[in-house]
Amino acid sequence: MSTPAEEIPLSKRDFEAALAALKKEESARKDAPGSYQSTDCVRCFDCMFTTSSVDCFSCTYCNQCEACSDCTHCTGCTNVHGSSYCQKSTNCYKSSYMLVSHNCYECVFCFGCVGLRKKEFHILNKPFKRKVYFELVEQLKASLGLT
Predict the structure, then answer these.
(1) 146 vs 137: CA distance, rounded Å
(2) 12 near 25, Cβ under 8 Å?
(3) Best label site of 4, 21, 129, 135, fewest CB within 10 Å?
(4) Is residue 133 within 8 Å of 146, Cβ to Cβ?
(5) What whole-number distance in Å separates Cα of residue 39 and Cα of residue 109?
(6) Strand partners for 36
(7) How do the pLDDT tens digits run along the chain, 147 residues long?
(8) What is the domain partition of the chain in residue ranges?
(9) What residues have CB less than 8 Å from 65, skipping those under 6 apart?
């Protein structure tokens, strides 16, 4: 009987081949283990009421997201984590109500922003008063066809 250590290929070529085989096997998976009431999801784990998403973890009420985790009510996001109510945003973390924003951290109510940290009520990285922000966002959403 062999031990687990004896079954590990130690040469670079064999190790890389075994790793590539595991990656190929994983990418072929289509299930969503631990998920509840999630539809059309691929490799989503522990998600609830999530639809048409890929490679997400512990997301709730998300739609068309990819590689997101611990998010709720996000739509069309990629690589967003610990966030809520984000739309068409990427690489955001611990943020809420982000629209078409990228690489933002701990931001709230930002539209079309990039690289901001701990900001709120910004459009294209420029600050606005709360009331003006919402007026401009409504115009922008209509103009850009966002709902």
Answers:
(1) 10
(2) no
(3) 4
(4) no
(5) 29
(6) 48
(7) 566 666 887 788 888 888 888 888 776 666 666 778 889 999 999 999 999 999 999 999 999 999 999 999 999 999 999 999 999 999 999 999 999 999 999 999 999 999 999 999 999 999 999 999 999 999 999 999 987
(8) 29-84, 96-144
(9) 50, 53, 54, 56, 59, 71, 74, 75, 76, 77, 78, 80
